[in-house]
């Protein structure tokens, strides 16, 4: 069946964009509700991050599998299954009465998103013929991704303030139900002309399990001791699972990640740099969200509004980066962005206990967000240049996965260090901490996280300087590759720290 001849393609675009908007909305809508969720379900400071990481790790681990399955079984089928899983998980999260139930539901949401995003983008690109109409359709898609992140901040704050944190999940129910009904009626179940032999479930499960164990080990290391038998045993298990993933990919007839692609120096270096960038990025969103509500006393709605300049800063930085790439080497632009972003984090590391938004928070947020915009575009171009056309999808999906994994690992490390610093400050008092002393200790922990995030950013600069050569970006510098690839949900994740 021909999608373009038998179906109103603009209606198809609306349907998939509605579902993508739901996924994008979830990226930011949860962040501003974190303090309310922590209080209601009694999350500890170290376990709160699992609301983010359970989603992120499963999303990243199964993202490439979702794209492969959509090609094999049909894009509409995987899209519908993904929306059903995501919507059911949202209901589970809204009804959650314990922290473990919510964490499990968030992981299930991540699986649903990993099926929805690649299937939805494939539906768009196969529904619209290459040329002006596809460009218009992808422009709408990108606007949904960028706008959804900003809307989520405000909507999440409003729902948490007026109703409760549970409504940041319940809001997905009518959207998901409508998307499923319309997709079944109007979206054809197209398949790839050259379908993969397998979907490599074993590869996706092994890498996701390995990353989950690794993050859990990092989070629990402070409690168990970094050199304890339990910590070392979990580290060994994580290494074994990740080694099993490499072995599976090496032997698979249709691997999720063809390991030979890492021989492309520009791809490997750009993904390595992005890993550090996103790890540092999480420091700003996660800890700044806690700071403005737990320390400055902002309501969830006011907190959401406080982060709107970040979205604007990223858009400004991304626009400037495309001009800068033409004026100087694509290798230099991310270095400028990294310097700005790390500078913003160093400013945030100076936040006081009795601070205020304009002098203490906004300058660091703006500097960080403009820097991230300058970093994101050139690194995306570098990661997807020098790639054969048949590997373009793999390169884009790999960059998406790197962002998810980098964010999860970064948040685990930064949260562990922040909690350790807070506990050490409290322990040094020699007496039970008062509310004021506990707040001071919390801010000390946040400062440690921001400082560490800044150094992670600088590590990304070292990767760019040492591994990316002028020859690796020659195609970009000559102006032959200045169209930024559309990656599933990147704009939303950048404006939410996800």
Provide structural commentary:
The chain is 78% helix and 0% strand. It has 498 residues and is mainly alpha-helical. Helix 4 (50-73) packs antiparallel against helix 5 and helix 12 packs antiparallel against helix 16.
Draw up the topology in text.
Blueprint: H1 3-6, H2 9-29, H3 34-41, H4 50-73, H5 75-95, H6 99-127, H7 132-162, H8 167-170, H9 172-186, H10 201-224, H11 229-251, H12 265-295, H13 300-306, H14 308-327, H15 333-348, H16 357-384, H17 392-429, H18 435-467, H19 474-477, H20 490-494
Helix pairs in contact: 2-6, 2-7, 2-9, 4-5, 4-6, 4-10, 4-17, 5-6, 5-9, 6-7, 7-13, 10-11, 10-17, 12-15, 12-16, 12-17, 12-18, 14-16, 15-16, 15-18, 17-18
Q: How many E strands?
A: 0
Average pLDDT number: 84
Instruction: Report the structural category.
Output: mainly alpha
Distance between the termini: 37 Å
Short overview:
It is built from 20 helices and no strands. By secondary structure, it is an all-alpha fold. The two termini are 37 Å apart.
């Amino acid at each position: 069946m021909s999608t373009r001849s038998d179906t109103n393609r603009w209606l198809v675009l609306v349907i998939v964009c509605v579902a993508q908007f739901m996924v994008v909305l979830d990226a930011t809508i949860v962040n501003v509700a974190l303090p309310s969720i922590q209080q209601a379900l009694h999350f500890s400071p170290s376990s709160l991050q699992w609301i983010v990481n359970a989603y992120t790790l499963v999303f990243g681990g199964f993202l490439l599998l979702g794209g492969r399955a959509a090609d094999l079984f049909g894009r509409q089928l995987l899209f519908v299954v993904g929306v059903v899983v995501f919507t059911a998980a949202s209901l589970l999260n809204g009804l959650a009465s314990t922290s473990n139930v919510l964490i499990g539901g968030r992981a299930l949401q991540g699986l649903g998103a990993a099926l929805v995003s690649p299937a939805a983008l494939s539906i768009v690109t196969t529904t619209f013929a290459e040329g002006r109409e596809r460009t218009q359709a992808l422009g709408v898609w990108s606007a949904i991704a960028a706008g959804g992140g900003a809307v989520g901040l405000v909507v999440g704050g409003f729902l948490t303030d007026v109703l409760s944190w549970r409504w940041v999940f319940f809001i997905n129910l009518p959207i998901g139900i409508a998307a499923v009904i319309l997709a079944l009626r109007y979206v054809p179940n197209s398949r790839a002309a050259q379908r993969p032999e397998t979907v490599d479930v074993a590869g996706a499960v092994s890498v996701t399990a390995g990353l989950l164990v690794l993050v859990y080990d990092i989070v629990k290391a402070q409690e168990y001791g970094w050199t304890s038998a339990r910590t070392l045993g979990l580290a060994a298990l994580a290494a074994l699972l990740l080694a099993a993933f490499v072995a599976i990919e090496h032997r698979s007839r249709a691997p999720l990640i063809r390991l030979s692609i890492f021989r492309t120096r520009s791809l490997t270096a750009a993904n390595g740099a992005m890993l550090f960038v996103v790890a540092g990025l999480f420091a700003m969103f996660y800890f700044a969200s806690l700071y403005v509500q737990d320390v400055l006393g902002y309501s969830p709605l006011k907190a959401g509004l406080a982060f709107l300049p970040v979205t604007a800063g990223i858009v400004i930085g991304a626009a400037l980066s495309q001009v800068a790439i033409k004026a100087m080497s694509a290798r230099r632009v991310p270095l400028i962005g990294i310097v700005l972003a790390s500078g913003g984090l160093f400013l945030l590391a100076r936040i006081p206990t009795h601070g205020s938004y304009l002098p203490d928070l906004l300058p660091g947020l703006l500097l960080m967000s403009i820097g991230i915009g300058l970093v994101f575009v050139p690194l995306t171009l570098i990661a997807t240049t020098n790639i054969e056309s048949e590997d373009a999808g793999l390169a884009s999906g790999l960059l998406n996965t790197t962002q998810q994994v980098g964010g999860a690992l970064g948040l685990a490390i930064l949260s562990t260090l922040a909690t350790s610093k807070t506990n050490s400050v409290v322990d040094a008092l020699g007496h039970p901490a008062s509310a004021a002393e506990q707040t001071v200790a919390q801010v000390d922990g946040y400062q440690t996280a921001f400082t560490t995030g800044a150094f992670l950013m600088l590590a990304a600069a070292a990767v760019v300087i040492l591994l990316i050569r002028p020859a690796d970006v020659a195609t970009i510098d000559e102006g032959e590759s200045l169209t930024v690839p559309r990656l599933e949900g990147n704009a939303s994740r950048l404006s939410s720290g996800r």
